[in-house]
Amino acid sequence: MAEEIMQKIVSLCKRRGFVFPDSEIYGGLANTWDYGPLGARLLQNIRNLWWKKFVETRSDIFPIESALIMNPKVWEASGHLASFTDPLVECKICHARVRADKPEDMEAHTADHPGEEVTWTEPKNFNLMFKTFIGTAQDSKQEVYLRPETAQGMFVNFKNVLTTERSRLPFGIAQMGKAFRNEITTGNFIFRTLEFEQMEIEYFVKSADWEAAFEGWKEQMWDWIIGLGIEESKLKWRAHEKDELSHYSKRTEDIEFEFPFGWGELYGLAYRTDFDLKNHSGKSVEELQYEDPETREKYYPHVVEPTFGLNRTALVVLLSAYTEEGERVYLKLDPRLAPYKVAVFPLVSNKPDIVEKARDTFAVLRSTFAVSWDDRGNIGKRYAAQDEIGTPWCVTVDYQTLEDNTVTVRDRDTAQQERVNVDQLQGYFQEKLK
Ligand code: GAP
Predict the structure, then answer these.
(1) pLDDT of residue 299
(2) Is 350 annotated as a binding residue?
(3) Could you tell me if the CB of 148 is within 6 A of ligand 1?
(4) I want to staple 100 with a disulfide (CB 3.0 to 4.6 A). Which of 87, 195, 240, 347 is the partner?
């Protein structure tokens, strides 16, 4: 059943243009996906909402966009070169490598060798960072890494933001962008991929204030995900055990979601102490302390880090929205997330007056909303096609429109229709999207 739901989502995503297997014409690349016209809109809508909630409407959070490839000394100081590893074992039959800390992956691999006795090498730590080279010679000293988290870009710019924004504690730096990890995993669609996008905040506080900040961020993260329309019963907080904490964290709690393949991490909230700022101060030319403007006391701020995976958000949104009612399949997306807010149809495509009026309506709405146009097949099929991609409202221009300037607006979730004057349509949808 669980597998069936995942397959249905994967197939809908491909068929309708949300997510395609990456470089499919060459047979694809494991754990790598591309986002199509609808998927790109969905991601952008999530980014926009996140940006509005955590950056635009706050005076204590400053955005940056740092480079994906940074000075490699960053990763030495941050501890990623030494500690950002997964334990891997190698199958002695086919030499495939599998996560030693995931018995389910080892079991799945054993099933690939029916009738054979699979034995494994001892676990070895494998660094998750992708290494590449600057310049042409591969043996040059210019080894660099694709960033495995966006966080370090914010730590190395701490002083720059502090100075340019004249910010005072507590304050945060936010950024969204790609991160890369050489993950050895088994599938699960866009859940765990080689490249993905993070939306992260490093929130700097006085050391005595970290617990209050942690509790505050727990509430804000919960608020965010519930605000996207995700069912509360499918979400829970899970605190990391001591032995699973990242090398930089004293306390981490994840928001987990009940995926069809089991509970899994959606977001993380970590107390990173002063680990990063202190280490960068010791290893770089800059002292990353904060000077209290009143007392003149100098100290390293402590960090509470809420981190949100964009692609996992998209997966959770799609899984939660997927609805089957008899023959009817639709995505019950929050209208703010829907790739298209409205679809416009002419009732018939062989009456020039109706088509022209529909075109005009489409053009007017498109200046404000993402609007789709469809004049193929019958109306029932057009509704079904829009339902399947989560378009909340369909507007049909018909014979009556030519008489009284009204159109039918059909609601995705209730299938109810009402007549609205064309001149009022923009305000009507704006009100609904609030
Ligand atoms: N800066 C902290 C940090 O990177 P993380 O828990 O390793 O923490 C943060 O990653 C978030 O990034 C996760 O909660 C998840 O949403 C997302 N994420 C991590 N690895 C991922 C992967 N391989 N594929 C997709 N999303 C991933």
Answers:
(1) 97
(2) no
(3) no
(4) 87
